Amino acid sequence: ADFRGAHGRLVYAGRVTDRLGLPLDTPELDVDLAGSRIRRTVHPSGLRVLTEHMPGARSATIGFWVGLGSRDEQGEQPEAPASLGSTHFLEHLLFKGTPGRSAHEIAIAFDRIGAEHNALTAKEYTCYYAKVRDADIDDAVAALGDMVTSSLIDAEEFENEREVILEELAMAADDPGDVAQELFFQRVFGAHPLGRPIGGTPETIRRARRDDVVGYYSERYRPNTLVVTAAGAVDHDAIVAGVLAALEGSGLDRWSTGGLASPAPRRSRLSGPRLEGLGDALLERPGGQVNLLLGGEGLPQGDERRFAFGLMNSVLGGGMSSRLFQEIREKRGLAYSTYAFGASYSDAGLFGMYAGCAPQKAGQVIELLRSELAALAADGITDEERDRVLGQIAGSSALALEDSETRMGRLARSELGTGELIGLDESVRRFHEVTQDEVREVAAMLAARPMTLVAVGEVGAAGLAGERVSSLDASGPAALPPESAAEPQAAGSAPPQGGPATP
């Protein structure tokens, strides 16, 4: 039933649905989505809080999400100081102390309750989260809220963390697979902000100034850019009260919940980068393998073809029964790891295929990557493949949603991204509605687009032809790989080898 609540605020309550729209001008939502109670509050300050109660759970995951990522940093301009890497730098610094807690006390606050806690920086958002038992939810909300609203960004801690981040970049730079992924993103997106490394580069981190990062924090971390999501053994009203207390407890005007503000608008889907003339990139690195990535432009978030893409991607490279795995590894023994993947953003997307192999096998592997995509583009998928990947997607999605962290992330990505939350049954239904012709058309579209080949390793021994790039520098890829995993794709890991997450 839909009705007007207190003060004329629109409330949707008691409704059972498999699809939930998330309009920014609706103050309260309370629905049953596929057997879970979803509640959402849009506070007059612009703060948004979403919770999903999971019956029988004895723990919960809470995330404080800011709708700002590496793509929102200003570019390097002669008239302005560089801020590339500020978002990731800030993510580190929020663990380093507030007026009420030192860095050590923040660590103790989580350790004494056995919390699994961390943070992640992505291209379009930043998240600080903790997974705790039900009895400790209030403590986790208080600690996370204190960090997000009241970080001191101490000058000494700033310099210490600069060195830590440089070590993090150096660690990733030692991994050829990570470097290949970063170079691939740069080649596909080019000069667009989505092509920039999430963590900046060693040069931009060395040049970073505390005043710039403090300014970024003060200007952009506000109630109307903040989304708090929680899933598991949660009480919505208690979490809303705890978050509001944390904001008011900061004592800072910008976190005041007494004023009126609209939530920050969702990103436009109309102005994505136009990708033309992608060039290959070969980076010589010592090692026993060449890391190969082949692909190009993919699909943005919310694209109606994303379900067809999910089926195609699973058939092509989404598991041990996929075409790439069977042809490259099982039949020929050319690689240990090979898969296909996609990354979607508000206005653009990326599609790629990966394999790591011995240099002398690289040419054959590249031809197989191309030919398997071409075969899908020409002939589509078989009835058996369609049935198999529909089961794979339904099963893997159901298993993922047993975890409160996955559900917490799904709430946030829906709120910040598409503005639509889809239940498991509805998602599976949409996959089942995809025709084999639609799968073939998506494969044909991807195959017809400009593609880039990135190779990192002993490319000379592989005999590959293409543009050679030099060692990593400020204008090239940095050492922090693209976001991944749980679609909180956190900086620091590769695209998952397996089926696509539930759109």
Keywords, separated by commas or semicolons:
alpha+beta; disordered C terminus; Cytochrome Bc1 Complex, Chain A, domain 1; disordered N terminus; globular; nine-stranded mixed beta sheet; 503 residues; 17 strands; 16 helices
Describe the structure.
The chain is an alpha+beta fold. It has a domain at 281-469: Metalloenzyme, LuxS/M16 peptidase-like (Cytochrome Bc1 Complex, Chain A, domain 1), CATH 3.30.830. 38% of the residues lie in helices and 20% in strands. It has a nine-stranded mixed sheet with strand order 1-2-4-5-6-10-7-9-8, sandwiched between helices. Strands 13-14-12-16-11-17 form a six-stranded mixed sheet, sandwiched between helices. Helix 1 packs across helix 7 (210-220) and helix 9 crosses helix 15.
